[in-house]
Specification:
287 residues, alpha/beta, Nucleotidyltransferase, domain 5, 5-stranded mixed sheet, 13 strands, 35% helix, 21% strand, globular, binds zinc ion
């Protein structure tokens, strides 16, 4: 069995799995201290005393792809910054450890088993406290040298007055349409926001990001998930309208909500670990 972890700023989910099926999911609030002991305890709990064959981790970005370590993901307590998960957990459990960006894990799961099944090029956006993006082509996650964060695509540059982003830049998609930015701009949590014009603006920014990523990757389908998509009916009309108005050289991709629910990142992590046999050098991190 493969041990599965999905690490986030507010909660950590753990499970175990094989093939394309995961077991019961355990969730705990992300503790401020003792990150390594927390992860060890979760793995031991979900494995029920059996040693894992491998450990697959869905990590908040940005993470250090080469080292399989967290960097300084926004929202994570400082004790988690720099945690070398791949090395430390592979030492403790004597097994390979896969670490991948949580949006990439979710994208892989939706591409193979969810709303993207049967399509060749799949874009997945998670619109939650922050915004992440994963691209799957021919059933494989597209990765570069580092861990990319599509939420920091710049749509409203600083020289035109774009609002500051926590990444140090300005006018990123995440500074315009994430749950965090909605709370900051409108002084109310996204799930409580009712102002139609505010939601139309959110939808236009997400639509613009969808146009840009479509211009580059020409996806068959663009899939949305994450907590802010609970308000899909409020912002999707402006999203669709923006794509229709702004995309001229390509046919529109299908735009839809994901079908796998909040465990999709755990499932994607499992799929990555299962791929290990086919492509160990690319996917497994242990040193
Ligand atoms: Zn940014």
């Amino acid at each position: 069995m493969i041990a599965l972890l999905d690490i986030g700023g507010t909660k950590i989910a753990a499970s175990s799995g094989r093939g394309a099926a995961i077991g019961p999911v355990r969730r705990i609030p992300t503790p401020v201290g003792s990150p390594l002991a927390t992860l060890r305890g979760l793995i031991e709990g979900v494995m029920g005393g059996v040693l894992p064959e491998a450990i697959a981790i869905s990590a908040p970005g940005p993470f250090d792809r080469a080292a399989g370590a967290l960097r300084e993901p926004p929202g994570m307590p400082a004790s988690w910054h720099g945690l070398e998960m791949a090395y430390l957990l592979s030492q403790r459990f004597d097994c390979p450890v896969v670490v991948e960006n949580d949006a990439n894990c979710a994208a892989l799961a939706e591409a193979r088993l969810g709303a993207g099944a049967g399509h060749r090029t799949v874009v997945y956006w998670t619109v939650s406290t922050g915004i992440g993006c994963g691209i799957v082509r021919d059933s494989r996650i597209l990765v570069g040298r580092h861990d990319t964060e599509g939420g920091h695509m710049v749509l409203w540059p600083a020289w035109l007055g774009g609002p500051p982003c926590h990444c140090g830049g300005a006018g990123c998609l995440e500074a315009l349409a994430s749950g965090r930015s909605i709370a900051r701009r409108y002084g109310i949590a996204a799930e409580q926001l009712r102002d139609p014009e505010a939601w139309a603006e959110v939808g236009r920014w997400i639509g613009l990001a969808t146009v840009n990523i479509t211009a580059v990757h020409d996806p068959d389908v663009v899939i949305f998930g994450g907590g802010v998509c609970g308000s899909w009916s409020r912002f999707s009309p402006a999203l669709f309208e923006t794509v229709q108005q702004s995309l001229h050289l390509q046919p529109q991709p299908e735009i839809t909500r994901g079908t796998l629910g909040e465990d999709r990142s755990l499932l994607g992590a499992l799929l990555l670990a299962e791929d290990n046999g086919e492509d160990p050098a690319r996917l497994l991190t242990a040193r």
